Amino acid sequence: MQVAIPLFPRFTALDAIGPYEVLQRIPDVEVIFVGHRRGEVRADNGMLGVLCDAQFNELTAPDVLVVPGGVGTRTLLDDAELLDWVRKAHTHTRFTASVCTGSLLLAAAGLLDGLTATTHWSAVELLEHLGARYVEQRVVEHLSQRIVTSAGVSSGIDMALRLVELLADADTACAIQLLIEYDPQPPFDCGSLTKAGEDVRRRAAQLRR
């Protein structure tokens, strides 16, 4: 089984690496980072580089597609090569998924027209402008359409564990959750807009790239 994760300049690292860490643990799964060209792609802050091992035209029929987000998605909303590849890949996938603002690319490709979906809280207006209907959930599923979207950054791990359950079974998903010791106990309870006060929101806005 092949899992394709497209990379692009200024992607958010955990959007791609979180699902990678989960999905690569399914037996007989190959996770392939793919892009416009082979070679290194730098994450949003420029400090981390990840290698693409295939170009889009070399991986046209993945079993699973996971599209990460990041500020780099904004420049790709009219990228014909990427969006055409997403559309064609989706015709073959068992599941097409997104993390964070990766849902903007699914929407720009026309895959979310009229569907509920989620994204990072800062991109809600743009997601709806692109034809989806935002809902404030960590993971949103449309299994008959084979589409799963997840909210900001860390929610990609939740989404990937759900994909493991769908692709394998619940026991395998639970075993992988144990292997990565994913047992969140955050020191602060402010991980969503509904929980964050004005001071936290203001500071978050200052820190956004």
UniProtKB/TrEMBL annotation:
Alphabetized UniProt keyword annotations: Lyase
Domain DJ-1/PfpI: 2-165
A molecular-function term among this protein's GO annotations: lyase activity
Xref: Pfam families: DJ-1_PfpI
Record carries keyword Lyase: yes
Broadest EC class assigned to this enzyme: lyase
E.C. number(s) listed in UniProt: 4.2.1.-
Entries under PANTHER family matching the protein: ARAC-FAMILY TRANSCRIPTIONAL REGULATOR, DJ-1_PFPI DOMAIN-CONTAINING PROTEIN
Protein name in the entry: DJ-1/PfpI family protein
Species of origin: [Mycobacterium] holstebronense
